[in-house]
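Input record (one chain):
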Amino acid sequence: MIRKLIARQWRPAALLLLLLSSALISPAAFAQFEAHGGVSVTTGGEATSVVAVAWVPEWRRFEYATLRAEVGAMYFDGRHVRGDRDLNEGVTVGYLGARLEFDRGWLLGFGVGGQSGHTDALSGSPQFVSSAGWRHDRFSLIVRHVSNARLHEPNGGETMLLAGWRF
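The corresponding structure, as predicted from the sequence alone:
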């Protein structure tokens, strides 16, 4: 319990440190960062808030699309539910992957990552991250699913709707 309280106490400080350190990044590199927020739902219908950040540098340009590397992290807030489901702990998932962004705005992505924290929805590493969405200029809407593909039980997974901004 004390560990959870300490971890929650340091979250604002970590976010502030991240924001301050971003001032040291060149404008061109900073333009490849994204921040998203939204809602996530697990198989039982329990919803929670989720925030995500990602660095998405251009990897290769094709005739009608751009392939980007994706290095990101997501935080799923814990939620208190009735019954025997364990969803109380906040979980962070860090991942590496690739994203294909089509010139007409559509995007598809896939990545693999690890997690810190444990719930019935996210029950062990590795976690597979799949994304589909739409971008217009800097704004994006993404549907993302995170799951361990039944490598560990239980495997509820998290499915989220994210709205974001590329800086």
